[in-house]
Amino acid sequence: MDEEEERVFVAITCTDRGQHRRIRLTTARLHASDRGMGYALEHFAPPMRDAKPGSFIGRDSYVFICPRCGRTPQIKANKWWSLLEAVSAAGQGEFDISLLP
Predict the structure, then answer these.
(1) What is the C-alpha to C-alpha distance for residues 23 and 69, in angstroms, rounded to an integer?
(2) Which residues are within 8 A (CB) of 77 and not within 5 positions of it... i.e. 6 or more apart?
(3) pTM for the whole thing?
(4) What is the DSSP string of 37-90?
């Protein structure tokens, strides 16, 4: 497998900014033609165009749910993938979702 075909995985965790033990919410898979995340609707909800207003699911944002601290950070889909590309480019294999502003 050459470098263009290499898949990069980033663990998405939560620590409530260091207040609780690390918990893995999902794993992001990055590849030019194939990207996604596992455990949908267990610890995060992907954007869904038909999401009902007031639900925890966003129309254009990923919503993460930490079962330990109850945090539910959201991030727009295009910003999410740009952030993960930067995390991967920095050589990091993990991102703590509680660090989102």
Answers:
(1) 10
(2) 46, 47, 60, 61, 62
(3) 0.82
(4) ESSBTTTEE---TTPPTTSSS-SSEEEE--TTT----EEEHHHHHHHHHHHHHT
